[in-house]
Each structure stands twice: as structure tokens, then as C-alpha cells.
Design a protein that fits this description.
The structure is a single chain. About 40% of the residues lie in helices and about 20% in strands. The protein is α/β, with parallel strands linked by helices. It contains 8 helices and 7 strands.
Length: about 160
């Protein structure tokens, strides 16, 4: 009996946590500075503004991340139908980030580098604990998919088509 009650409580808490996921980015996350391919700083909020009115697939990745690289062919297939992909890299240096883009032929989408790495305000705000991390942001700027760690997660396509 106790085991059944504990299971029900665990299930309810898990469901509450999924429902309670963030739907918007914190002020600190939007104020976090990234770097674009031209070496210019840009806030994450400005990145979101740039893509306002578009459904965005946010891909947090790094060139040293095996799971990130293994998922690139699938991500490239997704980009054919849903081209608004924003890449944010956790590479340790700007040089390794740029080389990773070239090496893995990530030619389309918008590319940014997070110079503060894991400690950035953006990543702290979204509780980043694993990469790759995929998020979907709708046309109104709301997060419709908070966390997917596998590019083949069916929820990604489901949210991109809403």
C-alpha cells in the first residue's frame, strides 16, 4: 500500500514539474552576452528579437560533444523543413567554435558562442545540465519545448509544427 502511495505521489510531483516548466526566458538570460560569427557581442534577448515572429529551434551544443555531433545529420534533415535554427556553442574558445562549424558543415542557421560557458546566465536560467539541449520557441517568443536532449525526440517536430 505504501509503495503504491509513494508511486502516485512521485508521479504527481513529476507531472507538476513538467507543467511548471518555464515558458519565457528570465531577464538575466535575455541580458546574457553571446558572440556572433563576426566577433560582436549580442545579448540573447537581441537574438530572440531578431527571430521574432518565427518558430525557433534552439540547439545548445559544442564541437567536443559526441552526442551533439552524432545528432547533426538528423538536425540537418529537420532544417530542410524548419530552417530557423539558432545554435549556441559551449566551446571553450572562439577558435574551436568556428572550427567546429566548419568541420561539421553547420552552414545554415544563426551561430553564437557563449564565452562564459556553463556559467553563463542563460544556461543557469534554463538549468542546463546536459548537451545537446534542444528548445523550441514559438512565434510569440514563448518556450513550447523546454528540454529535449535527443534530436530524434518526437516532441521537437510536434512543437515546430504548432
Amino acid at each position: 500500500m505504501k509503495k503504491g502511495i509513494v508511486t502516485v505521489i512521485f508521479f504527481m510531483v513529476s507531472m507538476f514539474c513538467m507543467i511548471a516548466q518555464d515558458k519565457t526566458f528570465a531577464v538575466e538570460a535575455k541580458a546574457d552576452h553571446l558572440m556572433d560569427l563576426e566577433g560582436k557581442p549580442i545579448t540573447f534577448g537581441k537574438v530572440l528579437e531578431t527571430h521574432k515572429g518565427q518558430v525557433i529551434l534552439l540547439d545548445i551544443w559544442a564541437s567536443w560533444c559526441k552526442d551533439c555531433i552524432v545528432g547533426m545529420p538528423t538536425l540537418n534533415a529537420i532544417k530542410k523543413d524548419y530552417p530557423e535554427v539558432v545554435y549556441v556553442s559551449l566551446d571553450k574558445t572562439k577558435d574551436s567554435w568556428e572550427k567546429g562549424i566548419q568541420r561539421f558543415k553547420i552552414n545554415n542557421g544563426s551561430h553564437y558562442w557563449a564565452p562564459k560557458g556553463w556559467k553563463s546566465d542563460l544556461f543557469t536560467a534554463i538549468d542546463l545540465d546536459w548537451i545537446p539541449r534542444y528548445m523550441v520557441i514559438n512565434k510569440e517568443g514563448y518556450i513550447t519545448l523546454y528540454k529535449a536532449i535527443n534530436v530524434e525526440d518526437k516532441e521537437i517536430i510536434k512543437q515546430l509544427t504548432k
